[in-house]
User: Fold this.
Amino acid sequence: ASAEPGASAPVAPTVAPSAGPDLPSEGNRLGSADAKVVVEYWADYQCPFCGKFAQETIPQLIPRIEDGTVAVVHRDYTFIGPESIDAAVAVRCAEREGKFWAMHDAVYAAQNGENEGAFARARLNAIAASIGLDGNAIEACLDDHDAIVDVLSDTAEAVRLGIESTPTAIV
Assistant:
């Protein structure tokens, strides 16, 4: 029997957050504001290759982030479907609580197919709760005009730049 979208098992992120307690971060920037090298990467939370980038490539940059040489900036390019937008908005909502990178990592760790319920609102609430956020606050924020506009503005900028796939990194 097929499960209802969003009826997946409880979420338990399996990766260490990239923005550990010793790493400077502000919003969608991981690393120092005056880093010599900035890696701006455009991604969709449903994209499996973006998940690999977040879980494998960013951790490899941690020593350079720690020494202030490199900063990583996440930008949303939500083109796969409605769950992409909801996931990106949920991460923006977590940013308001200072947990952008924890939610970023937890969302990527919870990937489970595209537009199949992995990022249904109930799952996003569970993901938020798994990192210590109030799931009800995330639920309310998913309809927040400003957060939605921020996500869609990033996506529009990706289109203007001619980005055609994710992840795309600009150094």
About this structure: The helical segments are 48-66, 82-95, 100-109, 121-130, 135-141, 145-161. Confidence is low (pLDDT under 50) at residues 1-17. The beta strands are 25-26, 29-30, 37-43, 70-76, 168-170.
